[in-house]
Specification:
single chain, 240 residues, alpha/beta, seven-stranded parallel beta sheet, 7 strands
């Protein structure tokens, strides 16, 4: 199985990349931007892992990746990359430009890459797309997450569109919505907020990167009958 993981050198992306690369029958491609040392470490640990430098904020860099996709003969695309702060400030205090910038830096490259991958999937009449969302879309959103959630909500709509438009080509599109995890993306969150999350959590512990990566591996191996679904990892906290 040939897999492409965007943002696959650090945080959740690294956990996903390493999880797939443990199986030597997998050819794992993963993008990185500035995490050079981590990317090299993954390549050193797994001969079947190949790092692809791609700066989502640079149109030429994204275009180069789009062109390379034709050579990779992919079976699975995992849309994981996200740059920017998930928690900013109150909605009315966020500069309008921030919404436009993070949309351009995150959504447009994801759209371009997914378009290129779907074109190849249609030719081979098979493929899986897995997109990382967030359980904040279901639960009460944290203060300051307006920009991040708006982008994830946009992706959630695309996940369903990809599923309905491509199912007849044996192409599936599913998403995973993990709850809060400790990673580089969330490292600036106040420790008191994290302690409160743990205290109010049904399991009294936060979701781990490895638990999420394991679920994504399961999704990549799932039947094509699993299509258009969102797998929520939040210990049932949205149930009423």
């Amino acid at each position: 199985m040939n897999i492409l993981i965007t943002g696959g050198a650090s945080g959740l992306g690294e956990a996903i990349t390493r999880n797939f690369a443990k199986d030597s029958s997998h050819q794992v491609y993963f993008t990185f931007n500035s995490s050079d040392e981590k990317a090299k470490a993954i390549e050193n640990d797994f001969p079947n892992a190949i790092a692809l430098q791609c700066n989502f904020k640079n149109a030429e860099s994204v275009a180069q990746l789009q062109n390379k996709i034709n050579e990779l003969n992919l079976d699975v695309l995992i849309n994981n990359a996200y740059s920017g702060e998930p928690i900013k400030t109150y909605f009315h205090k966020i500069a309008v430009e921030d919404f436009a910038t993070e949309f351009t830096d995150n959504l447009i490259p994801t759209i371009q890459i997914t378009q290129a991958v779907i074109a190849n999937f249609r030719k081979k009449k098979s493929g899986k797309i897995i997109t990382v969302l967030t359980s904040f879309l279901l639960n009460t959103p944290p203060t300051g997450s307006a920009v991040y959630l708006a982008n994830k909500a946009y992706l959630a709509s695309l996940v369903k569109t990809w599923a309905t438009e491509n199912g007849k080509y044996n192409i599936t599109s599913n998403s995973i919505s993990p709850s809060f995890m400790l990673s580089g993306l969330t490292q600036d969150v106040d420790e008191r907020v994290i302690e409160q999350m743990i205290e109010s959590h049904p399991l009294k512990k936060l979701l781990t990167l490895q638990e999420t990566a394991d679920t994504i591996l399961f999704m990549a191996n799932a039947t094509a009958h699993m299509n258009g679904l969102d797998i929520v990892l939040n210990a049932g906290t949205n149930l009423k």
